[in-house]
Amino acid sequence: MSKKNMLYVLGASICLAMLVLALAGRSRFPLFNRMVTAIILPVENGITSLGHLGDSVRGYWKAMTVLQEENEKLKKDIEELRSANVHMVSVEAENRQLRELVEYKAAHKSQKTVTARVIARNFGDLRDTIYIDAGEDKGISRNMAVVNNGLVGIVDEVYGGYARVLLVTSPRCRIGARVLRLDSRAIGVTNGLNSIDGKLMMNHIYRDASVREGDTIITSGISGNHPENIIIGVVTSVHLDEGGLAKQAEVQPTADAADVEQVLVVTAFTPEPKIKLANEGGQAK
Question: Which residue has the higher pLDDT, 174 or 55?
Answer without folding.
Answer: 174
